[in-house]
Specification:
Number of helices: 7
Order of helices and strands: HEHEHEHEEHEHHEEEEE
Strand order of the largest sheet: 4-5-6-7-9-8
Shape: globular
Oligomer: single chain
Radius of gyration: 26 Å
Mean pLDDT: 90
Structural class: alpha/beta
Strand content: 15-25%
Distance between the termini: 71 Å
């Protein structure tokens, strides 16, 4: 009997739908399945679907790349303003924040003061990472640790692990170097976060582009091996030249500049000013390169109200 009643009810609903369709009448409005979306859903609707792209585990962050190595005044400061327009959840760096290259503490102080006055204008957190200009020598390395506590670290957000490495540990050791302590630390962090849904690796120098480098002796091979078969993406800077590579089945990025020395010869040469916009989704990061000259504020053009007062 229950089955018969259910079947009858279903037939009644189908019959009413057919009647509405035949007469052209509008079906009663329904609520959206999306609880925060209030919209009248009818038999026919002017949209594709109501499955909004708003999974709470998805998030967006930005990456800034080399600012120095022949920096061009005003470019990085402009990038800060544009990041505030874009409103990522946070901003990360791949190093070369100041010019450095000296053992003069007075000069470091001025350069760090100028840099930090820029990032303090961000509406969101900024995560530091050292490049060879930031820790050009041991006194600068010690100053970095005095200011920021450590030169490599990790954090986890929405089950995504961020591994922030120091490719100058210690400074001036070959093309790049990762100390034994850093190698062991990275291996331990990766082992402790085997369940991370993705890993983002940030470092200054693109180790995989140095054809003659000894990856084992430099300390990079043990870290890369520890990444294993987990899903991960690597971002670096240093060469002021954008290029994407696929290594071990993973995407490895060498970024261009955010104000660092460049002839800006264009996309074909990988030489341009940009920030990287990353949307983290379940199946990996969605990556966009935002050219700084393509982002502008709302007052790019204003006109007076010609009917003001009427």
């Amino acid at each position: 009997m229950k089955s018969l009643v259910t079947s009858s009810a279903a037939l009644l609903i189908l019959g009413m739908a057919a009647l509405y369709s035949a007469t052209g009448a509008t079906q009663p409005a329904q609520e959206s399945a999306e609880p925060d979306l209030q919209i009248a859903v009818e038999a026919k609707n002017p949209w594709t679907d109501l499955q909004l792209n708003n999974d709470p585990k998805n998030f967006q962050f930005a990456i800034v790349t080399d600012r120095t190595g022949g920096h061009r005044p005003g470019v990085f400061r402009g990038a800060i303003d544009k990041l505030n327009l874009l409103q990522p959840e946070f901003v990360v760096s791949v190093g070369d924040l100041i010019e450095g290259g000296t053992e003069d503490p007075g000069r470091w102080a001025l350069e760090w003061s100028e840099f930090q006055s820029n990032v303090e204008r961000l509406d969101m957190p900024f995560f530091y990472l050292p490049g060879n200009h930031d820790i050009s020598n041991m006194p600068m390395f010690e100053e970095w640790n005095r200011k920021f506590g450590r030169s490599y670290y990790s954090f986890r957000y929405h089950d995504v692990l961020f591994l922030c490495l120091n490719s100058e540990d210690p400074p001036r050791t070959g093309s790049f170097h990762f100390s034994q302590d850093q190698q062991e630390w990275a291996q331990a962090v990766l082992a402790e976060n085997e369940d991370a849904r993705w890993t983002i690796v940030l470092l200054h120098k693109p180790t995989w582009t140095y054809v003659n480098a000894d990856l084992e002796a430099s300390g990079w091979a043990p870290i890369e091996d520890a990444l294993g078969d987990r899903p991960y993406t690597v971002f670096s800077g240093h060469k002021h030249n954008y290029a994407k590579s696929v290594r071990r089945g993973r995407d490895y990025y060498m970024l261009a500049t955010t104000g660092g020395g460049s002839n800006l010869s264009g996309k074909d040469q990988g030489r341009f000013d940009h920030v990287v916009w990353v949307t983290m989704k379940d199946d990996g990061p969605v990556i966009s390169n935002l050219m700084l000259d393509g982002i502008d504020h709302k007052n790019i053009r204003t006109v007076p109200d010609v009917r003001k007062g009427k």
